[in-house]
Queue: 3 jobs
Job 1
Amino acid sequence: MPIEKILTHPGSSHKDELLACCVLLYQHQVPLVRREPSEEDLRNPNICVVDVGGEHDPQLNNFDHHQFPRDSTPQCALSLVLQDLDLYEKARAFCDWLEPAEWLDTRGPVGAAKWMNIDRKVLGQLISPIDITLLRRFAQVSELNQKDVLWQVMRMVGEDIIEYIKMLSDRLLYLEEHCQWWTIGNGDQSFEAIFLPRTDPLPQNPSMALPRFINEQGKDHSTLAMIYPDSRGDGYGLSRHNDNLKMDFTAIENQSDVHFAHKGGFVAKSTATDPQRLKELLALAYDNS
């Protein structure tokens, strides 16, 4: 059945229902209303009721979590919407921000900070002005339509969430097919690097998902560097994995085929394309002390 509208609660807004509505707006280009749902709304499968109403019933498109037991696994409105779209497991695997968002919404800042093993004030320090503006502006409206800028921005956010999840799945398959593992050095002084050769066509942002691929391959600790096609030129980018300080690319900034090395030492760009030369640059950047 076609969705006619998306309905969520009035008053102050939180990240979980905002993002849930963003995802739904990408799926259904319909008006968004902020008010308390009626019984008729809850029984109407053509209306998505989000983060309000006390019901989780995907067949009726009701996505509220507040009625769940206090000790249940943290799930927010966004979790329920992603489950309905069969994207939740991939979202949990690919979106590192999702689980903290679930904890923050269901356990509050104190519980979330304890789970994250950080000081409570760190959560406040990480709040972005982007978050503040979107949540504040969303809280001020009672209805949004396609003509509204905020509606359009929210739909873009939903698009990026869903397309990122789908694209990352494809990218991991691409990396598995094309990546090579290099061992640089000898014996106790050796380390691993991952090399992604240039392909035609070259994917947009070729280094995207490399850290996650390394982690999935069980090589998070042995891999120190990543080498991937430079999307701005014919050469390659070289960067640290997990910001391992054993790799310092300022050590190669004076090499003739290195045209950029960040002063922080974590990334460099080279016009070199020969794998043997790239291995030499990695060896030069490695601090074996």
Job 2
Amino acid sequence: MTQSSRREFLGKTAGTVAAMAAVPAFNPYWSSSAQGAPFASQDRLRVGCIGLGGMGTGDAHDHNRFADIIAVCDVDANHRERARNDEKIGKGKAESVEDYRRVLENKNVDVVSIVTPDHWHTKIAIEALQAGKHVFCQKPLTLTLAENLAIRAACQANPKLAFFIGTQQRSDKRLFLRAVNMAHKGLLGDIKKITCGINGSPTGGPFAKAAPPANLNWDMWLGQAPKVDYIQQRCHNDFRWWYEYSGGKFTDWGAHHIDIALWAANQTEQGTGPVEVDGSDCTHPVEMKDGNPLMDDRFNTSHDFNIIHRFANGMEIHVTSRGDNGLLIEGTKGRIFVNRERITGKPIEEQWDKDVYGDAELQALYKGKPHEGHKANFYRCIAEGGLPVSDVYSHLLTMNLCHLSAIAGRLKRKLKWNATTERIEGDDVAAAMQARVQRAGFEIPKV
């Protein structure tokens, strides 16, 4: 399929966002009847945007509809200055800083938007919570299984702060919400298998090492990751094809489609998850030893794989690079396919859900709040409390499967997973990959 861009997708699913642009995030009288009503500018929340590359710029434009952006931060001076002078972001007035800690220290910042490379998400998010900020963070939230536990502890310690994940498929009522509702209503029968087509990572290299550009603080960009020579393809955009900073397609598209799969299968409560993960069918573009790449000048995440997650009830979730991008949900009564362009299958063609998919069902999926644009839900939760549709707790279970896929695939073998203790059992090498040594000076806070 032709993969829709994230910005195009948000444009299709935002729905009521534009109409709600002037609504203050923390107005105590926010109600369905008040949406769109004008409020004084001083009532709007104030946002600090950390990470302003392509994705960060798009998210900042969305935040600007609901709040005032008063600080922009990026280790690339070109990114932050462009954002500062963008009329939909900093408007030439926002504070511009290289160090994210300056944003967290700013007492005027109410909300932090974190759209950095993946290996920075957890550290900044925890420190933002500790600084009393509401948090929007792009997916994938974590780099390791150990970071999942740290984020959960930080959120539990700060229950009054809203924490929202950028998994926008959860707001698409035409496609993904319809698929989830159909599964929840039992229309497909017992769910037996879900195939998540997430494509494979690109391959490339060897790449040339070079001096970092003057506009980039390379040491700060690396953060907790090992200190290495600068390679252009390690940095902006392409960072996700290196296990040092991300998880390839396992955490890129996986964070979206595995999330929908677990939601449809009612596997979103802590303690749920697979009992076995089979990574035998996984190939990498570089030679690996004990799960670690032996070359440092080329992309190293998997380009060809079919990882199988087996659950105690007999259900399987297949995470694969093969076939169409999207989800094939198979039950004992029927099956459907859904992605960002279409939803198909006999249950759709015959409208099996015509009497059981309306406002009430959407509100149930939205945890009791009205269905609306993705970031509108975030700001409503800041105002009213409660969990957002893209909540941190269910996302961490998605990240469990994403990281387990990567670990099993890197080792090319089966792993035993204890979903209660959230530990890999019976394999010391694999268990050691649940966490990573963080470079001195960039450690994630203990919670």
Job 3
Amino acid sequence: MEYRRLGSSDLTVSEISLGSWLTYGVGVEADAARACVERAIDVGINFFDTANAYGRGAAEEFLGATLDGLERDSYVLATKVYFPMSRTDKGLSAEQIHKQLEASLRRLRTDYVDLYQAHRYDRNTPLEETMQAFTDVVREGKARYIGISEWAAGQIRSALDLPDVVRIVSSQPQYSMLWRKPEKHVFPLCQSEEIGNIVWSPLAQGVLTGKYPPGSPPPADSRAASESMGQMMGRWRDDDVLDAVQKLKPIADGANLTMAQLALAWVLRKPVVSSAIIGATKPEQVEDNAAASGVKLSDDVLQAIDDVLTAVL
């Protein structure tokens, strides 16, 4: 496993990180989930990402129990705030940031998180209030650093321009071979401002592993076949996308990589990407994905990928 600095922070994170959206505490049986975390630690993954909204606290509770007993400085722990936890508990007001962080810390069984992230931008709360509250939790020692997820470049810029508030060190956008939107505005801003990117869904929710042939039902043990985990796949299940993905197989074979490793190495080719979050349901997936760390793709391979996928981007 290779490691990268997370933006301007002093956090060093594994190039592959383990997430818990739709999986741990909800979609994956507890023993299998624990096995994934244990395998992640074995292969050198030190960065675990979650959110209060994942399973309404269930993912945090699972991680808290699973990581309990490990030396706290041996792993980097990130969670998020914004999405509803009840009819009235939602958003990024100062009250909610403090309230939700306290609840997250209890579930995670820790005194602090290394990274506390705004899960989305809150248009109903003044940005100044949000950033001041984040500044306060850092000063209180309950969060070491602040990050954001799925903020537009202009929103990030506005937060950076505020005086006397904590500085954003990370961004968490969706990014994959099939979803390249951050390349236009977010990545250039992050590059110039030393903001690291922790990209989510780098495998397009498993589609880029090639396990979903066009015109066929999904494998019974796959994310797409799960009622709780397969609801967000959208266009990734369209036959034209699946057909294009199948054409990546010879490229991966030629590079002596699995399809997942090819997709992960593709997102990690950019220095502005600090880590790629995987969402494994089996330990074997963790091990396979982790092997993408350190892989360098040639210009010929990168061009071949673009030639295959251009029609569906």
